[in-house]
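Figure caption, in words: inputs first, then the predicted bound structure.
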Amino acid sequence: MAREGERQWQEKGKGPRLLLFPTPLQGHITPMLQLATLLHCKGFSITILHTNFNSPNPSSYPNFSFESISDGLSEQQTSRINFMTIATALNANCEVPFRDCLAGMMLENTGERIVCIIDDGLFQFLPTVAKHFKLPRLILEMNSVASFVAYVAFPLLKLKGYFPIQDPMSKTPIPELPPLRIKDIPDIKGQSPDTWYEMVANSLNQIMDSAGFIWNSFDHLEHTSLTELRHDHQFPIFPIGPLHKYSLPSSSTSLLVQDRTCMDWLEKQAPKSVIYISFGSLVAIEKTELVETAWGIANSMQPFLWVIRPGSVNGFEWVELPEGFEEKTRDRGLVVKWAPQQEVLAHPAVGAFWTHSGWNSTLESICEGVPMLCWPFLGDQKVNARFVSHVWRIGVQLEDGLERDEIERAIKRLMVEKQGEEVRERISAVKENAEICLREGGSSHESLNSLVDYLMSL
Ligand code: UDP
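Bound structure (uridine-5'-diphosphate present):
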């Protein structure tokens, strides 16, 4: 419900303006547009700054203004998306266009108050430019609070000799960062350890004096990590998630075309019988791993809905599934290139989600009470998977790579064995808490009110 100040803006149709600038990747654009919609409903005027690459569709958001920032990305960089390549190129290319865009907006400004800029922490040039225009900067964090705590601990871990990591598969616990083990430290495959450490350290330097952090998470889930963060740092923190569960007007934020035939297919499946498999918008696996995955799924004998994104096998635009796979799985499986994931997870036929443990996917699964089989690939996904399997105990983790027998066993554990039932009970309780925190008086609801008050005070 709108409070007094918000109601006045809404009546006039024009509150103070917020600028939001997401990194142009699926997992970043979606929560940023959800936040924009939420804050627009609270009465703020919204401008979305966006790169040419993966630009959102303005017609889906008729109440927002859009400003395009030239990104200078080459066709090669945008056709095979690699997180590090995109992040480095955007940082090199966008500073001047971003500065020019802000300068233009300030010149045009007809007396309207621009409150602040909200980005997701990737643009290293942002603090200097924002400071130049005297604009406070807030971060919408795209990671869990737990993984942020892990990133913040990087300098300490370096001091303690964990870097460079000697054995990235080591299950040795890290006493300074329970319950993480060495293999759970966020890294990026194929990236030199020094470059990766430097990138994280630079990133931390440029975000730590932000005017505040907004989290797509909720207190009940991450109370311990939030308490730790609040204890160690002074910056204001607003855990207002799960963003996709507010009752708001919704528009599709999908960058790829969703194949909706899978919804009809799900209609024909028994309740909780299907394992949904998707590794998000960025992960690319090896061809041998695809083959192991296919046989693990086939041998588990469970119905499945599997998203294989074009380009998601290294070196190939598309790879045929192994010979005999189709025969073995006929009538109990469907492969699509991209699915309406939130709807899929909400479907009663879905009994488990085999995920790469991206934060959006993890939250979406939690909010539908769907147990997870975690196979983290890089970065914060490793921390998310560890918390899902060992702290919240709402999923299990594939620990030793993609190998058909282990995959088969893990799927059966979740779908047909007692452990699966226990996990399902626990995640149902977490789902309920996610719903409670968004209601009036709930922690995210209150935190959102504090965020609005804070933005008004800037
Ligand atoms: N997603 C989707 N359809 C798919 C696979 C994924 O709509 O077939 C969406 C999913 O709902 C989530 C996002 O893509 O919102 C993936 O974000 P996440 O943080 O999980 O992973 P990332 O893609 O950033 O690695």
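The first strand starts at residue 17 and ends at 21.
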